[in-house]
Amino acid sequence: MITINHPSVQTEGNAVTISYPILQDGHAPRTLSFTVDSRFRDFLNPGRADGALVALLPWISQQGGQVRVLPAISAHLYHFGIRLLSHILTGIGPFLKPVELAGEVHAEVLSPIPGCRIGTGGSLGVDSLCTIAELEKAGTPVTHLFHNNCGSHWGNRELLEGRRKLSRNFAEKNGMEFVWMDSSLYDFYGNEGYLNWFPFLDSGSVLVLNGLMNSYWTSATYHINHPDFTTRDRRDYCEFHLQSHILSAAETEQVRFHLHGLDLARYEKQPSLPIILLPATSSMFVWNVLSTAAHA
b/e map of 74-110 (b: 16 or more CB within 10 Å)? Predict the structure, then answer.
């Protein structure tokens, strides 16, 4: 049995951390923590565990599936999401067990937070840049650029910091709110986290902020006509071919997830990009892409 206990929230300097004690029968206590800029302290709710539960779901499934959640969770997530996410996980392999919420569950209907706050991941690769560009063209520009430690820089702090600096400068230059997050999810998943469970880790991290971004766009890395679609390892189906179902199941009353670019190969994404200025560490350089948007 695993227990997600009531968290604490602590501020240190310009950062604030919400920490969930994780108890497991026969094991020493562990802590799942999420750290963000202290400007977003009001969005870290110690009475809720939506994000922690979604982010830990594959790990819980690996440990036998039984979990008790002491803080409240979204009613939408409780009645629909967890069941579907559990079904997806058990279909990946026999080493994953159905997730069952044990004991009394405090399911609460969340009130949507007014306003339109559109977020997306800020790695600034061709996938995320295409998402940003096409949302701009659609008249729904990104307002929040999110950068956590769950991407392809998983476990590489130097690469993470380099990308984070670029993303921060890009957000400031383009009038977006920059939202960084560090978590201790690596301590639970090790090296396999990003490759196998990224949709859970990323959506869970967004949910930790309880509606700071009420519409979040994930950028697809592969497209549905990828030549390896029918032969890719079953564990990779979790990310590449069940991603839209995972994101849909992870939604709450306050946060809606979307998947962009599943119909586009990377070479098809480049013409959608305008000429984008990226502030480098010491100078400015131009990402010069052939653009249809620039002439639209």
Answer: bbbbbeebbeebbebbbebeeebbebebeeeeeeeeb
Q: Say which amino acid occupies 23.
A: L
Q: Is 178 strand, coil or helix?
A: strand
Distance separating alpha carbons of residues 121 and 131, to the nearest angstrom: 9
Give dist(CA 50, CA 45) in Å, integer.
Answer: 10
User: Cα separation of 153 and 161, whole Å?
Assistant: 9
269/263 Cα distance (integer angstroms): 10
Q: How far apart are CA 294 and CA 274, in angstroms?
A: 5
Rounded to whole angstroms, the Cα distance separating 134 from 274 reads 10
Pairing of strands 144-148, 177-183: parallel
Render each residue's pLDDT in the chain as its tens digit; 296 residues.
Answer: 999 999 999 999 999 999 999 999 989 999 999 999 999 999 999 999 999 999 999 999 999 999 999 999 999 999 999 999 999 999 888 889 999 999 999 999 988 888 899 999 988 888 888 899 899 989 999 999 999 888 776 777 788 888 899 999 999 999 999 999 999 999 999 887 777 888 999 999 999 999 899 999 988 776 665 555 454 444 444 445 678 889 999 999 999 999 987 777 666 776 556 544 444 432 233 333 323 333 33
